[in-house]
Amino acid sequence: MAKIARKVWVRGLCAAAILSVAGVAAVAQQDVLKTRQADMKANGEALKTIDGIIKAGGNPQDVVAPANKIAETAALIPSLFPAGSDQGDTGANKEIWDKFDDFKTKASNLENEAKMLAAAGQAGDLATVRAQFDKVVQACGDCHKPYRHKRQ
Question: Which of the following CATH numbers is that of domain 32-147: 1.10.10.10, 1.20.120.10, 3.20.20.70, 1.10.10.60?
Fold first, then answer.
């Protein structure tokens, strides 16, 4: 009888451990989704800020900080899409993981275009800033078109 009770106890412990690990994984996935969504929203806000500066004929140097923020986030994009993070409230298409090298290339392109935008702002020519801003927006779209869908 004690042998059976011990087996039940060990099985119960194993089941609890498995459920705990699964729960931690679910929480970690939710964290990566929230981080990813917050970072993408921040990129959108940075783009709006830069667009407002351009439309107002503002100081080109004012685009440097938001452009650098976009570049910093772009460098992190691949790490924000770990395998298995296509579940839950996400707009990420499964093609991201099927074509991850292309996805990383597009993120790297966004990073480079955003750095060039920051450099254009630093140089102080608003026309160059406008042209480079369009390239940053295009780089965003180059990734969103194949790899993003509207969340429900």
Answer: 1.20.120.10
β partners of residue 106: none
pTM of the model: 0.79
- Rounded-to-integer distance, Cα 32 and Cα 79, Å: 9
Do the beta carbons of residue 94 and residue 83 sit within 8 Å?
A: no
Beta strands in 26-138 (DSSP E): none
User: Count of CB atoms within 10 A of residue 85's CB?
Assistant: 19
Q: Average pLDDT for residues 82-107, to the nearest whole number? A: 93
Torsions phi, psi for 140 (to 5 deg) = -60, -50
